[in-house]
Write a structure and sequence with these properties.
With 374 residues, the protein is mainly β. It is built from three helices and 22 strands. Strands 10, 11, 13, 14 and 15 form a five-stranded antiparallel sheet that branches. It has a four-stranded antiparallel sheet with strand order 4-3-6-7, with helices on one face.
């Protein structure tokens, strides 16, 4: 313990004695010299704080609330308080009459930690992460308040994110079921079974329609195929390609709180890789026009979008078996007109046409038409 004394504890005459004054001057000089000769250490950087808050968004789907956030561009090195090890997700259920403003201290004391998600190195780079909170509806409306915060390996916690508030709707239709996908020449016909109840068990289902989704892999985000909710339990996908693999699912659409649409969980996933084994339709509307040296053939173009071309067959004997007729187009005809110059005056010629698609499927024969060369 160091004793201190006020200056007035000593007689004034003692302080003015020359020896005392000299001693005080020497001590002062020594302190100044010592302070100037000591080694200077580099200034310490300010202590880092854990990562700042993130922004959280969310939405309801069926009986789930899905909250999401964007991770930082990169993580700090091991040992740093900036090194994020996990994400803690908190939820607070409150009555609709509760004030919407709430301090972080109040939220921290009243909220429930619903999940802790470990963070891996690959989760950074502005990657979007999410958490699905499965709800059980108690029959009374409530407001849910969510927030997250980062935690490092030492347990140090960042500030809370923003508060995401949602009033989940209990009367949201259950998911459709029994989705099937059947291919044909020009469409993939989708059909499913409508839900019979809402997620809270009430009936009839709160149903505005259906949204139909398709992707080409299980990891690719699915794309919405319809512009407005489909009213029926079937849908034709006409924008597809043979030989590609497709994944389909359907969600019911309900009217949620504040008249906002809410989707159900998805149906089963229907997986399909359509193969083109479908023959095109037979060419139609054949007409002929003859001159002394030529017979011109006209016909309607096929409605299929994958037609590679046409073949024209000719005979002077209508009773001859069709496979024995002469093929007069040595290469596939890519137009819907043809002129036959190998004709003789006074003879009657019979013709029929077949269509061929890009995968080699062949149509039935057209009707047989005939013309006599003048």
């Amino acid at each position: 313990m160091v004793n201190t004394f006020p200056l007035n504890a000593f007689p004034l005459s003692i302080l003015h004695k020359p020896r005392i004054k000299a001693a005080l001057a020497f001590i002062t000089l020594a302190l100044l010299i010592g302070a100037g000769c000591g080694k200077r250490k580099p200034p310490l950087p300010p202590k880092e704080r854990i990562v700042q808050r993130v922004e959280v968004t969310g939405f309801q789907r069926g009986s789930d609330v899905i909250v999401s956030w964007q991770m930082p561009a990169r993580n700090a090195g091991p040992g740093s308080v900036l090194n994020v090890a996990r994400v803690d997700i908190y939820r607070l259920a409150e009555p609709l009459s509760a004030p919407q403003t709430l301090s972080e201290e109040e939220f921290a004391s009243r909220s429930l930690l619903v999940a802790a998600i470990a963070v891996k190195p690959g989760d950074f780079g502005l990657k979007t992460m999410s958490y699905t909170d499965a709800l059980e509806f108690a029959g009374q409306p409530a407001r849910l308040r969510y927030a997250i915060r980062f935690v490092n390996a030492s347990g140090q916690k960042a500030a809370f994110s923003n508060f995401f508030l949602i009033e989940p709707a209990s009367r949201v239709a259950a998911a459709p079921s029994s989705l099937t996908a059947i291919p044909s020449q020009d469409r993939i016909a989708l059909a499913w079974t409508a839900p019979h109840a809402n997620v809270d068990g009430t009936q009839p289902p709160n149903l505005l329609g259906y949204n139909i989704y398709r992707s080409t892999s299980q990891t690719e985000p699915a794309k919405l195929l319809n512009k407005t909710p489909a009213k029926d339990v079937n849908f034709d996908d006409r924008l597809f390609e043979f030989g590609k693999k497709y994944f389909y699912f359907v969600r019911a659409v309900s009217l949620g709180t504040e008249s906002q649409p809410v989707e159900s969980a998805e149906s089963n996933i229907a997986v399909l890789e359509p193969k083109d084994t479908f023959a095109p339709s037979a060419p139609s509307a054949l007409t002929l026009a003859a001159t002394p040296t030529t017979i011109s053939i006209f016909f309607a173009s096929n409605p299929e979008t994958d037609i590679a071309g046409y073949r024209i067959y000719r005979s002077t004997d209508a009773a001859k078996p069709r496979p024995d007729w002469e093929l007069i187009t040595k290469e596939l005809l890519v137009t819907n007109t043809f002129q036959d110059h190998q004709v003789e005056s006074g003879k009657t010629y019979f013709y029929y046409i077949i269509a061929v698609d890009k995968t080699g499927n062949i149509s039935e024969t057209s009707e047989v038409v005939s013309e006599t060369v003048p």
